[in-house]
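Quick look at the format.
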Amino acid sequence: MRVGIDAKRIVRNATGLGSYGRTLVNDLMRTGCEDIELRLYAPDEGCAELREQLIEGQTFCCPYERSHGPLAAIRKAWWRSKGIVSDLKRDGVTVYHGLSGELPVGLRKAGIRGVVTIHDLIFLRHPEYYHWADTKIYVWKFRQALCEADHIIAISERTRQDIIELGGEAYSDHISVIYQSYSPRFSATVSDERLRAVRQQYQLPSRYVLNVGTIERRKNLALAAEAIDLLPQDVHLVAVGRQTPYADELVRHERIHLLSGVPDQDLAAIYALAEAFVYPSRYEGFGIPIIEAIAAGLPVVACTGSCLEEAGGPDSLYVDPDDVIGMAEALKMSLRGSRGRDERIRRSRAYIKRFEGNDVAEQVLEVYRQLGRSST
């Protein structure tokens, strides 16, 4: 059976949806399944550094390899939203998987079974965090994906509930909760030489709490910054991620360090050098950085109100997203030498075994196989 996969984010996004796609494709390849052939479809070849993170063995299709400019962008967008269907038919694709909440128009009519991964519906839950025009586009893509999908993968139980509530009860029988897996590099030992080099390169403080993710208002990083101000003077906050105008509101905090453009190969060392991890977001579909932090051996402090308890498990600490004192106390309990810290880390690492790659990949492969059988 031939399975097509939307690879635009895989070759263009260094984090987030791109990481999800690259990790999933690599995990699928590691299973060694011989009954399924993977073909990756992207409008162009994207970033060479990101493509090189993929395990060899799948065919890569990109019709606009070196096409640039405004008209090229329009052609690429049209191809991904509709034109790709004719390429999928030509290539004999049986199942097509949209990894980022989108499926092309006409997929069902062409007789190709559709799978869509939906990460979150924050644009419906909290439209105040988006430009109104972006919200309209995201809502249209969500509704279109529901029309074309034969099966929906939700990355958390919270997202599954949101799909049913905001999309319709009729879809409940076609949704599987399949959690994201994390890259094994985060649990691998980083050499002392590499740690020293990364600390020097980014001028990292000797003690810090880490946050990873886009620095935007919804992520609520100000809560962590205010809590850090209540901790011992030598404890700092390091935040790694793309910066938005919200970052300007954080610079008044003297002990916050904002890093952007950090290459993927340095991230594991930055995790390994931290004392704890904080994820104060007000709403998420899952929260893969929490899993990465636990894999790296860090205790996690996150916020209540969405799905972060699903990601971090019962031995991470959770506080209200407006509780500065509670956040400071939870972080204090997570610093080295704190009572119970090592045991919480141990139990959390046992908890995240459910997110390991092959288990996730086998679940996705079974979705493909079921759709393939039903199409014959």
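Next, a different chain entirely:
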Amino acid sequence: MSVQGAQGFVEDPRNDTLLVYVNGDLVPKAEAKVSVFDSGFVLGDGVWDAFRLVNGTLVFMVEHLERLCDGARSIDLDIGLTEKDLADALYRTVDANTMRDGAHLRLMVTRGVKKTPNQDPRYAVGPATVVITAEYKQPDPQVKIAGLQLFTSTFRCSGPDVFDLRLNSHSRLNLIQALIQALKAGAHEALMLDPHGFVASCNSTNFFMARDGEVWTSTGRYNFMGITRRHIIKLCERNDIPVRQADFTLAQCYSADEAFVTGTFGGVTRVSRIDGRTIGRSDGPGALTQRLAVLYAELVAAAAARGRP
């Protein structure tokens, strides 16, 4: 089955027989299980992060682990492992699956098994649950060429006092509801506004647009703390590409010269339509989108060339 979208990928039969890291053990994918009393299953009580394997190296791994551990500390979740321990577990999973390139890993941590299914964290009866999946996943090249179609959802990105997107929490229902709206409308991804009506991000990626040679993205107050987003902003600054982080409206998106989204899995992906309106060229990515995609690919290649830390 091929599913197009920001999270769509090319099917790979090698994924059927991979090993999954579950609390220190590497088990066949079909046997990888956690308890029905696990905090993640019961409540979505946990944090996660994603990693790309490029030429034997998990690129930007330190930044991703810092984000994961910061999130865990924020919700008073004791992982029971240091960042080095987690790095070793990630590479152990890669090596056990004899992976070298083109893989996407997801590290998931929950508060662990609970005595009873309730919200109170004091009912956790054991250590944190730590799971790592590693799969051969490449973005669908047709989406890269044709671009993503976005639909503006009625569900809003929330402030940190309601639900802090910076935590990379397992709880994702609000974002899933937004995505369902987009899918029902025939789009690939949901564009989401903040509580004040300004554009915030998409349901699984960070949103950028270009106007008059300048790259725009939101303030970040209501965003994922995107690592790819951070690198794109820095690449703009280093390469004399004007970039602003500011409030802007949906109407301004409709009249943009270009638009794209960023994420760990897809890197830089063109947006071709928003709410049925064509954005930029109809035959491919605009000049700034292409340039930033190349600059980002070069940055990833340089990070991979440095090898394992």
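Residues 141-305 form a domain with the D-amino Acid Aminotransferase; Chain A, domain 2 fold (CATH 3.20.10.10).

See the schema section for token definitions.
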